[in-house]
Write the structure tokens for this entry.
Amino acid sequence: MTRRANIGNILRMSTPPSVSKPGEVLSPAVATFRLVLTLAQELRGLMDARLQESGLTTQQAALLTVIEVKGSPPTMTEAARALGMSHQNVKQLAVVLERKGFLEIVPDELDARSKRMETTRKHRKFWAKRDPDDHAVVAQWLSGLSEVEQETLARLLAKALTGARTARGRGAGEAAGIEQ
């Protein structure tokens, strides 16, 4: 009996990870792009699995993190910008999180049409209990890198994120090098 190779993978996941076809030479930018996407999907899947028992998703946790990091309650538009997603997507996440008791959606004091999001006591208690274990597991996931490498990677990814956000601000066509 012969075994057929699995040829259905879009991104080949061999060891070490390959993001190109055999013989294909990628520019460093394209190889980095593909690896970052692959890593992001892998980490999101791992975190979704960790959060599944609690009924949360990685995207919901990311929204809650943005609200906490902002300091003052952000508008949905501000949160959408920070997460690189649409206002509608943030609103859908926020409505679910409000129903679960993790945040409150409140009108802006200066513009009632604008909605702000505030985390709740339930949210703070939930994450205070979870964070130490979650942080330790994330450290395990990245244990293939030394602490210095992790710091360097974080600095480089922050720099790349700034570049991507700058490109997004110019518009998709211009950012892609397309004449408008």
